[in-house]
Structures are given as C-alpha cells and as structure tokens.
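Quick illustration, no need to memorize.
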Amino acid sequence: MTFRVGLTGGIASGKSAVSACFEQLGVPVIDTDVLAREAVAPGSDGLAAVAARFGRGILQADGSLNRRTLRTIVFTDPKARQDLESIVHPRIHALLAARIAEVRAPYCVLAIPLLVEGGRIPVDRVLVVDCPRDVQLTRLLARDGETQAGAEAILAAQASREARISRADDIIDNTGSLADLGAKVQKLHEQYRALAMAHRNRAEIC
C-alpha cells in the first residue's frame, strides 16, 4: 500500500539534491543508481555477466567495475546499451521490490534517472527535476570532468527535456538556491502525505 513517487530528471539536473531534501524530512528514498551499483558489486553474478559481455577491460585492477569505461561504450553503441540493460535491469528490479517491501512510511521516493526512458517501474506519481540543457551541460562538465563531446553524447542518449516534462505530475525547477529547493520539496511533501493517505484509504476499502 506504500504510495510511490518516481523522482527523475536528466543527468546533472539535481536529483540527488532533491532526494536529500526528502530524506531530511524523514521520507525513505530508494535510489536505483545505488541499486545498480549493488547489482554489479565485486563478486556479484551481475558483474560477472557484464564482464562476460563486454570483456575484462571494463574492470579496474581491484576487480570492480570501471564505470567511466563502460559508460563510454554504452553511450555510443545502442546495442551495447541494450545488452547492459538486459543484464542489470532485472537485478535492479528485484532489489527495488525488496526495498519497497521494507518501507513502513506513508510514502517513499524512488529515484529513477531513466524513468521516462525505461518506464517499466510502476509509480503512483512522477516528479521531474528540471533545468535548462545548458545548465545540465555546465554542471556535467564541472562535476564529472567530461569532455564537451562526451557530455553532449550523454545528454543526447537520454530522453529530451520535453519528453520528461510531458510525463510529469509535478515539476521542480532546480535553477535557484538550495533554500528555494528545500521550500519546494516541503510543499510537495505535504501534498504527497495527503495523497498517500487517500491511497491507503482506497486500498483498505478495496
């Protein structure tokens, strides 16, 4: 009966900052990026499957996944990206289901960067963190040390800003200060608690 808010947005849009705001309010946040790392942790069958498909060149000296190398491969090769998703996504979904089952709060936030692109994880509400593309690009270059060409390729591989907005039930404009962001999240928190209560009441009636 847990009400699920799907939090998404383009890379470097500020999803982590929004997640942190919800966590500060006591809301459970389940981040699929974290689950993705767990799915291919050293020694896991997921990592073994990825290495079997892409070769041991995607591993670092300590046996962990070299994410930058793999990201370069999959963002320039659609077939490689599909193969990676076929390995990782089922494992992420299994981990996600287990985490949701543990939630005892009225609602939880599922941070899903590729919610619009994938669309296979059911949520009750879609919250999009939005900012202009040039802001994303600037943040990506500064944060990850990407080349201009690499950053452009990453943005091009994701859903467009317009596509994300078209799927949104709620939108947070993340071009202001952290204080502004916190106030916006607080307002949504109150809204989601009310929606979660209505959701629970409907489920109990059924």
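The beta strands are 3-9, 29-31, 107-111, 125-130, 170-173.
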